[in-house]
Amino acid sequence: MSSAENFIKQRLDDRHKAGSYRSLKPENGLLDFCSNDYLGFARSPILKTNIAGELATHKDINGATGSRLISGNLAYTEQLERDIATQFKANAALLFNSGYDANVGLLSSLPQRGDTIIADELIHASIIDGSRLSHANRYTFKHNDLEALEAKLRNAKGTCYVVVESIYSMDGDTPPLAQMVDLTERYGANLIVDEAHATGLYDTGVVTQLNIEQRVFGRIVTFGKAFGGHGAVVLGSNGLREYLINFARSLIYTTAAPLHQLAAIKKACELLPQSENEINKLRKNILLFKQLFSALDKQSSRLIGSDSAIQCVLLHNNKRARQASAYLQAEGFDVRAILSPTVAEGSERIRICLHAFNTVDEITGLVKHINILINA
Ligand SMILES: Cc1ncc(COP(=O)(O)O)c(C=O)c1O
Q: What cofactors does the UniProt entry give for this protein (predicted)?
């Protein structure tokens, strides 16, 4: 066996031993309590029809044919970016092929050697990866903790960027954003907010809900979650947009999104303001889940505090988290285990993603089976 094959085998064996081996699984027909399709857009017949109608009027092109800077930039793309900027109350928007690309492009290109990036300790991997590619000083602060953030801000060198999520992908909770914007302003730092899991449930996001969009330096909105498609935008100033076109390598050195992806984003953005019913239904489902769960877990000590569609039940090790998801799947509920190293050792969990389309019976049944699990 070559040294590379040996290395691969060793690493995979280690994963097996740690109970954290990852494998791809096809769709399973179970009740969806794990996807990011919070409002049901990914399966919406209305959206499908609207996208088809849009594509029918632009029959001339399938693929983008090249990167945005060569042949892949359409008038359609730039109009879509202007429309998104207006809808999300930003000065400018720049589309990336995914949220991962957006975060890597932004964080790798903007902070320079001698600058400082301060990110919440639970920040998404795409922000960590982008920051690693930059030459800036990198620090994390205790999750959602303003004092810990201030301690890092006091020692920040150069231009400082503070990066947080408005709803954390693995915990579902929200930072004190209003205070954070005050704090970062006091220290002259630039606040960047990833709104991947907030858009939809909170309309165009927590930032616009708090009316702080003019005080936040940059936002990332992704279209693969509540919008049911794929892709993302960085929202910010016109200068930031121009800068990213010039320096963000994940935009410059990749083929642009095909028209279908752009049309899906456009039509999902148009559908959002007409989706009050779905948003209300999702809110009701979140409330129902929390009420039912707190009735069985009186101290609510297992549930991570969250008002979002992401609800996590802590099980504290990989084995128990895996067993729990296997049990729930056998009962018909597609709930996934979140294992270390994706989350810190000791905080392994099952993550329940709630949706507008989950029924009262489904949620009641799920909580009943979680109860059996906890008391087994
Ligand atoms: C907070 C956050 N940011 C960015 C991303 C990446 O977005 P995308 O799936 O569009 O690449 C994710 C997806 O998991 C996420 O949870």
A: pyridoxal 5'-phosphate
CA of residue 225 to ligand 1 center, whole Å: 8
Average pLDDT over residues 297-324: 89
Ligand 1: nearest atom to the Cα of 224: 10
Is 299's pLDDT higher than 70?
no
Section 40-64 average pLDDT: 93
Residue from 38, 101, 103, 126 to probe ligand 1 pocket by mutation (most atoms less than 8 Å from CB): 126
Distance in Å, CA 171 to ligand 1 centroid:
14
Q: Where are the domains of the chain?
A: 25-41+275-375, 61-273
What mean pLDDT, rounded, does the chain reach? 96
Task: Indicate the CATH number for domain 61-273.
Answer: 3.40.640.10
The residue to mutate among 164, 222, 230, having the most atoms of ligand 1 within 8 angstroms of its beta carbon, is 222
Atom number of ligand 1 nearest to Cα 126: 4
Residue by residue, DSSP assigns 177-220 as HHHHHHHHHHTTPEEEEE-TTTTBTTBT-HHHHTT-TTT-SEEE
168, burial (CB in 10 Å: exposed 0-12, middle 13-18, buried 19+):
buried
Q: What is the pLDDT of residues 267-278, one digit of tens each?
A: 999 999 999 999
Instruction: Write out pLDDT tens, residues 86-109.
Output: 999 999 999 999 999 999 999 999
* Contact by Cβ (8 Å): 103, 252: no
d(CA 186, CA 355): 38
